[in-house]
Amino acid sequence: MKGVVKFERGSGFVELRDVVDRAPECNQVKVEVKATGICGSDLHVYHDTINYRIRTPVVMGHEFSGVVVDRGSEVTGVEVGDRVTGEPSVYICGRCPYCLSEHYNLCPDRRVLGYWHDGSFAPYCNATFVHRLPDSVGFEAGALTELLACCVHTVIEQAGVSAADFVAVTGPGPVGLLSALVAMAEGGTVLLCGTSRDGERLKLASELGVEHVVNVEADDPLKRVQELTQGYGADVVVECSGAAPGIDLALDLVRKRGKVAQMGLPGKPVEVDFEKVAYKELQVSGGVGQRRPAWERSLKLMELGVIEAERLVSHDLPLADWARGFEMMEKQEAVKVLLRP
Fold first, then answer.
1. Based on the structure, what is the number of domains in the chain?
2. Are the beta carbons of 180 and 157 closer than 8 angstroms?
3. pLDDT, tens only, 22-32
4. Cα separation of 233 and 223, whole Å?
5. Does residue 123 share a domain with residue 157?
6. Low-confidence residues of the chain, pLDDT below 70?
7. pLDDT digit string (tens) for 34-48?
8. Where in the sequence is the domain holding 255, given as residue range(s)?
9. How far apart are CA 223 and CA 234, in angstroms?
10. 196: phi then psi, degrees, rounded to nearest 5
């Protein structure tokens, strides 16, 4: 079978090539991939700018949904024919304090799909932790569960957004859009910031119900936030751009004693005015990956129709057109691209 392979470290070194169709391990299931999303972190893997463990050659991709076609001898609770989505974590130690407290996304021995183990940019992939898709959740939305779970983890579990919070989100890509929807689901009022290049994404945000959208090149986001919060600032800011100006803006938009959660990955060291954290007595957190409770909540949010993740999908391409999909995401010509193996 053919897969999109990162075959050597360094920027580039990715191509569609023949890959081995391996049987699942005793604790894994084999999934026939029906849809798989291009994530911003896939672009970092392409350019080798992600600060995470990579082993080459490796089939890329970690956002997916599909149908179970085989299972290992130790697998229970999942049957051949089940419609599923799967967690990127292939291996966790199960013994460290992070695993034992169900924060296994921080396990020092964690190894994941598309980085260390062959991922979902192929017709089949083997997954260790899978979740059944509710009947009302299609493969398109199912492929976005991993991304939504990341947002649930950061917005709810890390930043603690709750009802009546004023939440600013910087960066209207897929992460920013889903973070805005999660904050709204928790009862927050959301203002989403983007640039002129993000016109279509900001338009989609409005269509999805985001109350306030701001093009920071045409309007002053700090002034808008102050007008909407009686001059105090946002209770919570979720930074999703991964760009130094976005991080600085997040520290400006948040009120004193407010919260800032960093989701965007710069891919390199950036310079920001971190002194603002001290002067404003901020609570700053990060979010990487997700935990099982975030997966369960994400599936429930989609099952109930609270979040229609499939509406973020702007382009649906065959796997052979992976390079076009990567280029579209890089140039921000797409909101979310799905590949079909």
1. 2
2. no
3. 999 999 999 99
4. 9
5. no
6. none
7. 999 999 999 999 999
8. 151-286
9. 11
10. -60, -30
53 and 87 in a single domain? The answer is yes
Residues whose CB falls within 8 Å of the CB of residue 312, separated by 6 or more in sequence, listed in order = 144, 174, 177, 178, 204, 335, 336
| CATH code where residue 64 lies | 3.90.180.10
Query: Six-digit token pair at 221?
Result: 């986001």
